[in-house]
Design brief:
With 708 residues, the chain is an alpha+beta fold. Helices cover 50% and strands 11% of the residues. The chain contains 27 helices and 22 strands. The chain has a five-stranded mixed beta sheet with strand order 1-3-2-4-5, with helices on both faces. Strands 13, 14, 15 and 16 form a four-stranded antiparallel beta sheet that branches. Strands 20-19-21-22 form a four-stranded mixed beta sheet, with helices on both faces. The longest helix is centred in the C-terminal third of the chain and has 20 residues, at 596-615. The protein is globular, with a radius of gyration of 26 Å.
Length: 708
C-alpha cells in the first residue's frame, strides 16, 4: 500500500472515530450523577469528573496506576481498560446499563483488573489502545473498552456494548484467556508489534522537502477543493466538524494567491457555521459538531479546544475581510467563555455536556410557546429570525435557534432598520439567557487542561490583535499567569488542574499549544517574559521529547511513565498535531532568536511530511500552514519606540499572516532588535526579510507597502 493510500485509510479511521451517532429517543443522562450508594471504589480520590462519575459503581475500578498494573501481574489476570470522557453520551449509557449493574460488575470483579481512564487526562493511554482497536479492523470511538494481557498488551476490544452482549463477552474473554493463553499471548504480541511500528516507517516518511512554493500550495488547495460543500460550506459530508485549522490554512493560501474561490468558500463556511444551530445563537460558543450537513443540529456538547481555535479563525478572518458578523461571533463566544468556562484564577474549564435532565440539548432548545411568552410583542420577529415553528425544526415541537440570512437581508425583508433589529435580537438573547438560568444546566467538566488552555489563550490573543479590546488581553494575561503559576514547575508543564492540584506530566500537545500561545502573547504585548517562557519550554521538549534519529517528537516525556509503546502524533485532527505545532513553533522562534538549530529542525520535520501533505492535506492542515510560511519569506517586523505597543495593535488590523512582530519601547537583546532605534524620537517600524531590512519608516501604511 503506498503512503497516500495508507494515510487515506488512516484518516477514514479517524473520521469514524469522531462520528458518534446521535439518537433522539435515548433517555439516559449524559452527565451521569454520582450515585452515592454503597462503598466507593478507588476512583473516589480522582480529580477527573469522568472518573468521579464512576466512583460508586459496584465495579472495583482502579485508575490507571502502578497499583492496578502490579495487581494484574501478581494475580496473572487480564486487564480491562475502559476509556471515555465526561461529556461522552454513550460512555454514560454503558455506565448506567452495565457498570451500575451488580451482576455484571461481579463478573468484571472476578475475572479482570478493571481500569477506568479519562482520555482527556491520559491521551497517551488512549492513543495506544485506540490504535490497537483500529489495527483489529474495528471502528474507533468512545467508550473504548480494550482487553489486555497482564503485561498491558492488547488482544481484543470494542466500543459500546449493550448489557447482555457485554456480560456474554466478559465471560467468553475470561474463558479464552484461561484456556487458550498461548494463542492470546501470541496475538497480543503481534498486535503490540504492529502498533509499535514507527510512524516514519509506517507512512514511509523521508525528507523530500527542500523547495516550498505556491505550486505546492496549489496542489493542496485542489485536493481540498474537490471535497467542498459549495452550498453549505465545510467539506461535502455529514456529520460536519468545524475543523478550524483547515480554513486557517485556506486563508493563508488565499493570502498567497488571491484565489477568490478559496476566499468565497471560507466565507460561506464561516457564515453557515455562524448561522447554524452548531453555534449557540443566544449565548455564544460552538458545539462539537453538526450531525447533519447543514450545520443545524449539533451534538450539543461544547469543548474548550474547539472554541479556542474558532475564536482564532473568526478573528483572523475578520482582519482579512472586515466582516462584522465575525466580530459579533468572537465577542459573544468570549462572553460565554467568561460567563461559563472560567475559574476564579483565570483558568478555563474543559467542556460542557450535551445533555441535561436525561435529554440531549434540552438546555438549549425552545418550543414556539416559550418563545412567544419570553419575547412578548417582538415574538413574531424573533420567531421569523430564528426560524421557530409550532412543529419544531428539530424534534417534535422543539426548535434549535438558527438563522438563514444576514441581518441586512432580514431587516430589508421586514422593512426595519438594521440597528433596531440588532437591538431587538440582543434583548431577546438576554431574555433567553435569563430563562436558561432557571433550567437544569448541563454537566461541567471543571478540570483545566494546559494544552486546551493554550488553544483558548491563543484565541484570546488573536481576538485582541484583531479588535483591540483590552478585556480580551486581560483575560489572556490572567490565563497565562494561571498556566505559569498553577500548571507548571519551572520548565515543565502539568497536564491537568483541579481544585488546587496540578497532576500528570504534560504531553507534547500541552507544550506545543502553550508555547504557541506564549509566542503570540509576546507578539501582542512585547513582554519578553512570555517569549522567554516559550523558549525555555521549547528547549525542554527538545531535550525530553525529541527523537534525534527520526527528527520528530515523541508524544510523551522521556522521564514520564513508560507504556508499552511510545507514539509520535503527526496527523492534524480536531486539534492540530503536536508535531506540526512544534515545527511551527521552532520556525517562529528560530526567526525571533536567529537560531539556526531551531530552523533546521523545523525544516527537517516538514520535509518528512511534504509528499503526504501535497497528496492529502485535509488532516495535515497545520503542516500546510507551516508550508505557507516557507513558500514565501517570513517578514520580520520590528517596532521600536515609546509608542511601540499602540503601533503594534494598529499594525494588526490588516491581514498579513506570514510575519513575526517584535518590539521594545527602549532596548532589547533580541537579535532582530539589536541596532534598531527610534528615529527622531518617533516610534519606528523596520520591515526585514532574512535579517535584511528595508528603510525604517514611522508610518504604518508605508510599512505595509514594504511587505511582500
Amino acid at each position: 500500500m503506498n503512503a497516500v493510500r495508507l494515510i487515506r485509510t488512516f484518516l477514514l479511521a479517524v473520521l469514524l472515530t469522531n462520528c458518534i451517532t446521535k439518537t433522539t429517543n435515548e433517555n439516559i443522562m449524559n452527565q451521569a450523577p454520582i450515585h452515592k450508594e454503597g462503598k466507593a471504589n478507588r476512583l473516589i480520590d480522582a480529580t477527573s469528573p469522568y472518573l468521579l462519575q464512576h466512583a460508586y459503581n459496584p465495579v472495583n475500578w482502579y485508575p490507571w496506576s502502578e497499583e492496578a498494573l502490579d495487581k494484574a501481574r501478581k494475580e496473572d489476570k487480564p486487564i480491562l481498560v475502559s476509556i471515555g470522557y465526561s461529556s461522552c453520551h454513550w460512555c454514560h449509557v454503558m455506565e448506567r446499563e452495565s457498570f451500575e449493574n451488580d451482576s455484571i460488575a461481579a463478573i468484571m470483579n472476578e475475572h479482570f483488573i478493571a481500569i477506568k481512564v479519562d482520555r482527556e487526562e491520559r491521551p497517551d493511554v488512549d492513543q495506544i489502545y485506540m490504535d490497537a482497536l483500529q489495527a483489529m479492523g474495528q471502528n474507533g470511538g468512545w467508550p473504548l473498552n480494550v482487553f489486555l494481557t497482564s503485561d498491558q498488551k492488547p488482544f481484543y476490544g470494542g466500543t459500546y456494548f449493550p448489557p447482555q452482549a457485554w456480560a456474554k463477552l466478559l465471560q467468553q474473554v475470561a474463558t479464552v484467556y484461561n484456556e487458550k493463553r498461548g494463542e492470546i499471548e501470541e496475538s497480543a504480541e503481534q498486535l503490540t508489534n504492529a502498533i509499535a511500528t514507527s510512524e516514519v516507517i509506517k507512512y514511509r516518511l523521508k525528507n523530500e522537502g527542500s523547495e516550498y512554493n505556491v505550486n505546492g500550495m496549489d496542489k493542496m488547495y485542489e485536493s481540498i477543493a474537490a471535497r467542498f460543500d459549495k452550498k453549505r460550506g465545510g467539506l461535502n459530508r455529514s456529520p460536519k466538524f468545524p475543523m478550524p485549522g483547515q480554513w486557517l490554512f485556506l486563508l493563508r493560501y488565499y493570502h498567497l494567491t488571491d484565489n477568490q474561490e478559496a476566499l468565497r468558500h471560507i466565507e460561506v463556511t464561516l457564515h453557515e457555521i455562524a448561522y447554524g444551530g452548531i453555534y449557540d445563537q443566544a449565548g455564544g460558543g460552538f458545539a462539537r459538531y453538526s450531525v447533519d450537513a447543514n450545520w443545524l443540529v449539533p451534538h450539543f456538547e461544547k469543548m474548550l479546544y474547539d472554541n479556542g481555535q474558532l475564536v482564532s479563525l473568526y478573528s483572523e478572518a475578520y482582519t482579512a475581510t472586515g466582516n462584522e458578523l465575525y466580530k459579533q461571533v468572537v465577542s459573544q463566544t468570549i462572553e460565554w467563555l467568561e460567563r461559563e468556562m472560567t475559574n476564579s484564577m483565570g483558568g478555563f474549564y474543559s467542556a460542557l455536556d450535551a445533555d441535561s435532565e436525561g435529554e440531549e440539548g434540552k438546555f438549549y432548545v425552545w418550543t414556539k410557546a416559550e418563545i412567544e411568552k419570553i419575547t412578548g410583542d417582538d415574538s413574531d420577529l424573533i420567531k421569523d429570525y430564528y426560524n421557530i415553528t409550532e412543529e419544531g425544526n428539530w424534534e417534535e415541537g422543539k426548535n434549535i435557534l438558527h438563522r438563514r440570512i444576514s441581518d441586512h437581508e432580514f431587516a430589508a425583508q421586514r422593512g426595519i432598520d438594521v440597528a433596531i433589529l440588532n437591538e431587538k435580537i440582543a434583548k431577546a438573547n438576554n431574555l433567553f439567557l435569563k430563562e436558561r438560568t432557571q433550567r437544569v444546566r448541563p454537566g461541567l467538566d471543571d478540570k483545566a487542561l494546559s494544552g486546551w488552555n493554550g488553544l483558548m489563550l491563543k484565541g484570546l490573543v488573536d481576538a485582541y490583535i484583531a479588535f483591540g479590546e483590552e478585556k480580551f488581553l486581560t483575560m489572556a494575561l490572567n490565563n497565562a499567569s494561571f498556566i505559569t503559576s498553577e500548571m507548571s514547575d519551572g520548565e515543565r508543564l502539568f497536564r491537568s488542574y483541579k481544585e488546587g492540584k496540578a497532576t500528570i506530566d504534560g504531553y507534547l500537545e500541552d507544550y506545543a499549544h502553550v508555547i504557541d500561545a506564549f509566542i503570540a502573547l509576546y507578539q501582542a504585548t512585547f513582554d519578553e517574559k512570555w517569549l522567554n517562557k516559550a523558549k525555555t519550554m521549547t528547549d525542554y521538549t527538545l531535550k525530553h521529547f525529541f527523537d534525534n534519529g527520526e527528527k520528530l517528537f515523541f508524544y510523551t516525556d522521556d522521564s514520564s511513565e513508560k507504556l508499552i509503546v511510545r507514539k509520535k502524533e503527526i496527523f492534524d485532527n480536531v486539534i492540530p498535531a503536536s508535531n506540526s505545532q512544534m515545527a511551527l513553533n521552532l520556525h517562529l522562534l528560530g526567526i525571533i532568536y536567529d537560531n539556526d538549530d531551531y530552523k533546521s529542525k523545523s525544516k527537517a520535520m516538514i520535509g518528512k511530511m511534504t509528499s503526504l501533505l501535497e497528496g492529502e492535506p485535509t488532516y495535515l492542515y497545520n503542516w500546510g500552514i507551516l508550508y505557507s510560511y516557507l513558500a514565501s519569506s517570513t517578514a520580520e517586523v520590528a517596532i521600536v519606540g515609546s509608542n511601540a505597543n499602540n503601533i503594534r495593535i494598529r499594525f494588526g488590523k490588516r491581514y498579513y499572516p506570514n510575519k513575526v512582530v517584535i518590539g521594545t519601547k527602549q532596548s532589547s537583546n533580541l537579535p532582530l532588535l539589536k541596532g534598531k532605534e527610534a528615529i527622531n524620537d518617533q516610534t519606528t517600524i523596520y520591515v526585514c526579510y532574512n535579517k535584511t531590512c528595508k528603510l525604517p519608516v514611522t508610518d504604518i501604511d508605508q510599512a505595509y507597502e514594504q511587505l511582500k
